[in-house]
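W.,

You were right to be curious about this one. When I first looked at the sequence I had no strong expectations either way, so I just let the prediction run and decided to look at it fresh. Below is the sequence, 189 residues in total, followed by the output.
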Amino acid sequence: MKRIHPLLVLSILFTISSGGNCRKSSGPTDVLPPETHEGLNTMGCMVNGTLFIPQEPLLNPQGYYFARYSNLDLRLAWTDQPDCGITSVVIELDSIQLVEGTTYTLGVQPDTTNTRNLNAQWAGYYNIPCGATFEVYSTTGQVTGQVAIDYYDSSRGIVSGNFSFDAVDKNSDTVHVREGRFDMSLQPQ
């Protein structure tokens, strides 16, 4: 059985316990954001053909995202809390040297109980529909994806890129994440 990343569990529990105070953005949410390299903290993708642009704050007091890079780890997480439920897209690149113009393969999620197995690049899609079971989808050794770093400026703390991946749940149901793009201001870790 796959283990859920501890940061994701903490994030979801915090969101649930915060009581669902909705604060939707006034920005356009019917199109993917433009591809920029300015640290605008934008993200968008298509999930099974449906537009996903997160609008709700989570743990980060600045908004709906979590973007960190240090000690050779890049962690990106975006969460939305629609009218009912919570949805997240997560990408993690562990033990990598972040290089502009490089594409990384997203595969097996690490076993967090084994510290010798944390060198992994993976992605996941998490959905908690109202009144339904927590749905966990992640990339595997056979069901993969990629994230391309189009822009990286370590002095300004900005990373931008694009991604796509397929992810499966414990029943082998698949979610398809396509046309993903992000422009993030990195937070210190």
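Here's what jumped out at me. The CA atoms of residues 45 and 91 lie 13 Å apart. And, maybe more interesting for your project: The first helix runs from residue 6 to 17.

Coffee later to discuss?

I.
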